[in-house]
Design brief:
Structural class: alpha/beta
Helix content: 10-25%
Radius of gyration: 14 Å
Number of helices: 4
Number of strands: 10
Strand order of the largest sheet: 3-2-1-9-10
Order of helices and strands: EHEHEHEEHEEEEE
Largest sheet: 5 strands, mixed
Distance between the termini: 22 Å
């Protein structure tokens, strides 16, 4: 199973550049994840016809918060994956997420805009960075999770 992952797109309306990114870079993925801060529900329209899961973030409009949960836990193959945006400062974010979501095989999150692909205490912490708003990160990035005998993450620079 191959999962495409984005976060922190911060789009207020439909965007042709982002739509092309979805169609090109995520062609052939089995599932798309958005780890929050879509801002507008128009982002979800760009996922039309694809299987996806998404959560709301701290910058999302009320119209997004009304349709998306703050957290999701789901099964991918034999692995349990948690999806949440994150909150607070970047220091300690992984501990806060783990405490909120419980023991999982992988936690996918956003909020910091900085890519992360690190296994800690048996949990893969995966943040795709931001596809549109890099802030302090060196580049805009997206991510992929490969699910097989194990979960592996990969970050791609745009």
């Amino acid at each position: 199973m191959r999962i495409g992952v984005v976060s922190d797109t911060h789009l207020r309306s439909g965007d042709d550049q982002f739509r092309m990114l979805i169609e090109d870079r995520f062609a052939g993925v089995d599932l798309l994840l958005h780890a929050g801060d879509l801002v507008s529900p128009a982002v979800l329209e760009m996922f039309a016809g694809r299987e996806y899961r998404a959560v709301c973030g701290n910058m999302d409009f009320d119209s997004v918060r009304q349709v998306l949960p703050e957290r999701i836990v789901f099964q991918a193959g034999r692995f349990r994956i948690g999806l949440a945006h994150g909150w607070g400062g970047p220091e300690g974010i992984q501990e806060r997420l783990l405490a909120a979501l419980g023991p999982l095989d992988c936690i996918v999150y956003g909020h910091t805009h900085c890519p992360e692909n690190r296994r800690r205490d048996g949990v893969l912490f995966f943040n795709p960075g931001s596809a549109r708003d890099r802030r302090s990160a060196a580049a805009n990035t997206i991510g992929f999770l490969e699910i097989g005998d194990e979960i592996r993450g990969r970050i791609e620079t745009l």
